Amino acid sequence: MAPRSGYTLPVFACAAALAALKHLQRSGGDPPITQVSLPLIDPPETATIAIEQVAQLQPQVALAITRSDPGDNLDLTRHTPIWAQVELNPLGQTATIVIQGGEGIGHHQSSGAAAIYRYARHLLQQTLAEQLAAGDRLRVTLILPEGQALAQRTSNAAFGVVEGLSLLGTSGLSQPLSSPEQLTQFQQDLEQKAQQYRSLVFCVGENGLDLAKTLGIPPEQTLKTANWLGPLLVAAALNGVQEILLFGYHGKLIKLAGGIFHTHHHVADGRLEILTAHAGALGLPPGMLPQLLNSGTVEAALALVRSRSQGDPIDWATQLYDSLAQRIDDQAQGYMAKHVTTSGDRRLPVVGCLLFDRQRQIIVTSPQGQKILQPWLPS
């Protein structure tokens, strides 16, 4: 059976807002709202979304609740409730539609702006505007009750988004990570870029692509991999790429040091175990090892090692991450050697890595990573 696609969070947020607005506009004899249909815009098709609950809170205010369904995608937001509160003709509002983030919607630490991105805003604006009478105004507050808790399991804070999840996405469809179609798309992108460039930069997600750009890495030489790092390393080797820079958040790429080449947390984790094993092998004080293993997150473990390094003659944090970076390079090289036969003129790509933390600060660049990165750095 083919994997089932679902919808991205912006679609469910828009559906809840549409249901709440329709509830305010309904007459007494209308049936209860149990579902709404809305155009996805991208792709150009219509989605029908079930509505769990809808209620009028005040004469001009209503709240509707739906629940995320990303299909067979391995998504931590599966079944999470999404609320939308809408207020019709709020006092003093001049804009036709105002969209704001409530509880559980992350915000940008630098500006305080809600992490509601272009596709989500466009979908909401277009869908809701079609339902308004001339002169009407609407205020929409989006709420993810579980957003703050779920955000702790993401790398959002690495990209400046705190206290909740982002309404992120460039399309309404959520394609399954296990879908061969997604991997095929990435492989086709790689094949095209391999014909033009000898060096490519692998970024797991959109945020990593943005951060790579700020360092001066040309976007045309970056490749989105999602969690398909293993198959794409092999594809790079088969297509003659000579250098690969693995560029990413340390909480993702550390998995490669343990031989995990599909990095989604539903497939395998082991990050703290990998970090602790390296710490023990390097000779970190034995009393620290249980603390590292029980840190809860790799970010907390990194903070612990950095704290221990202060005032100690040995910079344990630098030694640990130098070791991990080299291990990532070696494991990636070994993975390609295992799956790609070299003969004739075919040579395996050289692999380097760059790891950054939640504050978007580079923790370590492996020696090979520094060589690959050098041509893009300011002279």
Task: Report on this structure.
Pathway: Cofactor biosynthesis; adenosylcobalamin biosynthesis; cob(II)yrinate a,c-diamide from sirohydrochlorin (anaerobic route): step 6/10. It catalyses: Co-precorrin-5B + S-adenosyl-L-methionine = Co-precorrin-6A + S-adenosyl-L-homocysteine. This is Cobalt-precorrin-5B C(1)-methyltransferase. GO terms for molecular function: cobalt-precorrin-5B C1-methyltransferase activity. One of its GO terms (biological process) is anaerobic cobalamin biosynthetic process. The protein is of the alpha/beta class. It has 2 domains: 6-174, 2-Layer Sandwich (CbiD-like), CATH 3.30.2110.10; 180-374, no CATH class. Helices cover 35% and strands 20% of the residues. It is built from 12 helices and 16 strands. It has helices at residues 9-25, 118-129, 147-151, 180-194, 206-214, 229-238, 250-253, 271-282, 288-293, 298-309, 316-339, 367-373; strands at 6-7, 35-39, 46-50, 53-58, 61-67, 81-88, 97-101, 107-108, 138-143, 161-162, 173-174, 199-203, 222-224, 243-249, 350-356, 362-365. Strands 4-5-6-9-7 form a 5-stranded mixed beta sheet, covered by helices on one side. Helix 1 (9-25) packs parallel to helix 2, helix 4 packs parallel to helix 6 and helix 6 (229-238) crosses helix 11. The protein starts with 5 loop residues before the first strand and ends in a 6-residue tail after the last helix.
